[in-house]
Amino acid sequence: MLPLLLLGGNHPAPAPRPALAVLIVLDGLPGGLLERYDSLFTGGFRRMHDEGFSFSSAMVDHAITVSHAGHVTIATGRFPAHHGIVDAAWYTLEPGGTRKFRDALVDSAEHVVGDSAGRTSVSPRQVLTDGIAEWAGKASAESRVAAIGTGPYSSLLHVFHPGVPVFWYDGGAGRYVTSS
What is the pLDDT along the chain (180 residues), one digit of tens a residue? Predict the structure, then answer.
């Protein structure tokens, strides 16, 4: 059987580009909780709930459901085998056949900016593809993207390439920080 291609002249007009896109990921939020507390939402959260997109029947279609792989899957739309973050940590095979335990984001080449102790920080170097933050930047030179989270993983796992500000709260420092 041959494929059939139909071409027509009446195509719907493209949807206007949104002026603002906000991605909120609530790691570990039980299903149905947003609906349960719907009557309590006000202000900006009410507007996001009413005018945004909510996926109440979303399913994870990859074997591992740890936060790291899930966050990058949300941000890229790709499976872990394709975006590179297959778990929170894994073993790599080093030259000579030795195995090395590797955290998905800890990067000894990076440090916490402004930290006098020079603590090792994190980077997205293990992520193999672009995601929503990078796509927004490519779609328009006027796009502005930033990631803010409660920790390095909750923010950095949504933005992967240099030039996009990424901040997280560091309890030890008592402030928001970023990586070099």
Answer: 445 554 555 667 777 777 777 788 877 777 778 888 889 989 988 888 888 877 766 666 666 667 888 889 889 999 888 999 989 998 989 899 999 998 998 988 988 888 878 788 888 889 999 998 888 888 888 888 888 988 888 888 888 877 788 999 988 889 999 988
Handedness of CA 152, 93, 73, 26 (dihedral sign): negative
Closest to 154 measured CA to CA, from 49, 67, 32 = 67
* Of the candidates 169, 170, 145, 171, the residue with the CA atom closest to the CA atom of residue 158: 145
Round to whole Å and give the CA distance between 55 and 49. Answer: 11
DSSP 106: E
Q: Taking the CB of residue 126, how many other CB atoms lie within 10 A of it?
A: 20
User: In the sheet that 147-149 helps form, which strands lie side by side, from edge to edge?
Assistant: 147-149, 166-170, 175-177
**Residue 50 burial by CB count (10 A; 0-12/13-18/19+): exposed, middle or buried?**
exposed
pTM for the predicted model, two decimal places: 0.78
Q: Residue type at 27? A: D
Distances from the Cα of 42 to the Cαs of 22, 49, 51, 126, 171, in angstroms? 17, 10, 13, 39, 29
